[in-house]
Structures are given as C-alpha cells and as structure tokens.
From TrEMBL:
One of its GO terms (molecular function) is ATP hydrolysis activity. Signal peptide: none annotated. Keywords: ATP-binding, Nucleotide-binding, Transport. This is ATP-binding cassette domain-containing protein. PROSITE patterns: ABC_TRANSPORTER_2. It comes from Cohnella nanjingensis. Pfam families: ABC_tran (PF00005). The keyword ATP-binding applies. Residues 21-255 form the ABC transporter domain. The lineage of its organism: Bacteria, Bacillati, Bacillota, Bacilli, Bacillales.
Length: 331
C-alpha cells in the first residue's frame, strides 16, 4: 500500500547572524547550513495494517509524513502509494490517502461543521449522493450529527478531531496518515478517538500510519511500530519483540501463604544475579518476593517452578515492562 525507498530530505537554511537587525541579516546570509532531517529511510506498510511511526522530537517524523503525501519533495529516494508517486501523480495519491495533522485542522474555523463537508465534497468532485452515502457511513463510526451545526471553533478538541477524521475520509481513501491525532486531549477524549481509529482499521479496513508521542496510543492500537531517531530507522517490528530486544526485565511477584525460604545459592547474591535460575531477586518483603527475568532467555513458568519450591505460593503477578520505559531506552 505504502512504500518508502531510500527516502531522504535535506533542508538548507541560512546560518543565523548575530548583532543588530539579525533577522534581516540572517535572511540575506550567504552562509548556508544543511540539515538532513531524513536519511535513507526504507519501510513498507501493507494493506490493512495499523503501524505506529514514532521517535523523539526532531527525529524527522513530520518531514517523512509530508513526503509521503506529497507536501514535500524528497532530496533522494522515493515514495510509492499504491504504486503511485506523490510527486508525479499527486492527484492519484490524494485519492488514496487521507491525512490528519492534529496540530492543524482542515475544517473551516468559523463555519458550522457540516459546511466543511460541502466544500470538501466539491473539491473532490463528489456528487451530492456520493457525499451523503459517505457521511452516513462515517456517522456510524464518528457520530458527528450531535455537533453538526456547531461552528468548528466552538467544538471540543475531541469533537474537532472526529470532524477532521471525517474530512480526511470523505473521499473514501484506503489509507489514513495521522500526525499526533490525540495531542492535547484529556484521557476520555483520547480513549474515544482510539475507539474510532480501531473501528476504522478493523471494521472498515483502513490502513493507518500513526505518529504520536503518546505511547498508550501505540500500545493500544498498533500491531507494528517503526522507530526513527535523527532521521534514521532504528527499529521496525512488533511491539512484543521490541520489549524482548531491549531486555527490560519482566517482574514476577510471588506472595507466599506463610514464610518462604530462599535457597543458599540465591540468597548469597543478596538480590544479585542468580545465573542458573535465569532470574534475579529485585525485591523482598515479609511474605512476598519479586524477581526479574528476561523473557527472551527464561520462561515465566520456569521461574515460577523454582519459586514454588521456596514456600507455599498464594498468589502470582506478572508485570511486563512499561512501554514508555522501553521507548526511552531506545531513544
Ligand atoms: N522547513 C524546514 N527547514 C529547515 N529545517 C527543518 C524544516 N522542517 C524540519 N526541519 C528540521 O528537520 C528535523 C526533523 O524535523 P521534523 O519536524 O520532521 O521532526 P519530528 O520528528 O516531526 O519532531 P516533533 O516530534 O517535534 O514534531 C529537525 O531538525 C527540524 O529542525
């Protein structure tokens, strides 16, 4: 559906000048500096996938998205959207992709929401019947009628995003590219937007590429994640495998019914490594012990079998590493 092949973007900017009238002096400066925002980026998104595209501030995410939908021209490499180049076949690509920038709206600020769809339908040359059919379908997912007559500037952030998603989908593209769709929203609005996005992907078959700084968005929605840093791809794969690769421990907490006894070998380390057991003690309480293990090396059941020999097990909890921690580790 979507392919980035050796994609690069270098911006050439004037070197800032100091002193009086520095803004004007910078503008006419002959000294230039090149910033490579995206370097030799390769990835593919297959039809029906929901892929997270993440990285720290300034990593090159927005620059990539702008190249994917034809707003920016690559300095090298190319983009293919259903086989078309956004640079050469912009019209065809626009038909295939809907784009939403969470920080900006494509709706008309002072007009009632419904008027924006009239304008967009005219821009996409949709007949009144096509427009109505599509709005009925979008209503099933996005529930717009309740604020249909409200001017866009008076909508809540969550309502406006529902409007923006509908605007991006009005011409029924196969793919949605979303840049920070939940930015600034409270927990409830975020949850609602995630529900809409899940439905669009699962029930309506939309392929989605999602950029966000909210790791809950990624964890709850995406099957796969692409991580970029300083313009380069540093990971592309499943979230579960990313966890394993980073090697943050899975913590297993065992509560014992009465006293428990740690065998001499394990005790000796006083909370340090127990190489043979494949885990290490990270916390000890009166009737509870917590151990950490790397799941790519040791199975939880193997660890549990060993811990059950220390006393009578009453309860077990398995805590996976927090996704936010994993991401900080790789950035
Ligand atoms: N028009 C431009 N001219 C010059 N440099 C630019 C331009 N647009 C982006 N950059 C630079 O390219 C790099 C990547 O920026 P980009 O906005 O793509 O990052 P990002 O990953 O989207 O960051 P954020 O998460 O903060 O939105 C940054 O160093 C930025 O300063």
């Amino acid at each position: 559906m979507l392919e980035a092949i050796g994609l690069e973007k270098t911006f050439v900017t004037s070197v800032p000048r100091a002193g009086r009238f520095k803004a004007v002096r910078t503008l006419f400066s002959r000294e230039k500096r090149a910033v490579t925002a995206v370097k030799a980026l390769d990835f593919r998104v297959a039809p029906g996938e929901f892929v997270g595209f993440i990285g720290p501030n300034g990593a090159g995410k927005s620059t990539t998205i702008k190249m994917l939908c034809g707003i920016l021209h690559p300095s090298a490499g190319e983009v293919r959207v259903a086989g078309h180049s956004p640079q050469r076949d912009r019209r065809k690509v626009v038909r295939k992709i809907g784009v939403v920038f969470g920080q900006r709206t494509q709706l008309w600020w002072d007009l009632p929401l419904k008027d924006s769809f009239d304008i967009l339908a005219a821009m996409f040359r949709l007949s009144p019947a096509e427009k109505e059919r599509q709005l009925v379908r979008l209503e099933e997912v996005l529930r717009l009628r309740e604020f249909w007559d409200t001017p866009v500037r008076k909508l809540s952030l969550g309502q406006r995003m529902r409007g923006d998603l509908a605007a991006a989908l009005l011409h029924d593209p196969e793919m949605l590219v979303l840049d920070e769709p939940t930015i600034g929203m409270d927990v409830t609005a975020k949850r609602q937007i995630r529900t809409h996005l899940k439905l669009l992907n699962e029930a309506y078959g939309k392929t989605i590429l999602l950029t966000t700084h909210d790791m809950d968005d990624i964890e709850q929605l995406c099957q796969r994640v692409i991580v970029i840093s300083r313009g380069e791809r540093i990971y592309d794969g499943e979230i579960g495998q990313l966890r394993e690769r980073i090697g943050l421990p899975t913590v297993i907490r065992v509560a014992y019914r009465g006293d428990y006894r740690i065998p001499a070998g394990a005790e000796a380390g006083g909370g340090a490594d127990v190489p043979d057991g494949g885990f290490r003690i990270v916390e000890r309480r009166e009737r509870e012990v917590a151990v950490g293990c790397n799941r790519s090396e040791t199975g939880v059941m193997d660890v549990l079998r060993q811990l059950s020999q220390w006393g009578e097990v009453d309860d077990v909890r398995v805590e996976e590493p927090d996704f936010e921690d994993i991401i900080h580790r790789i950035y």
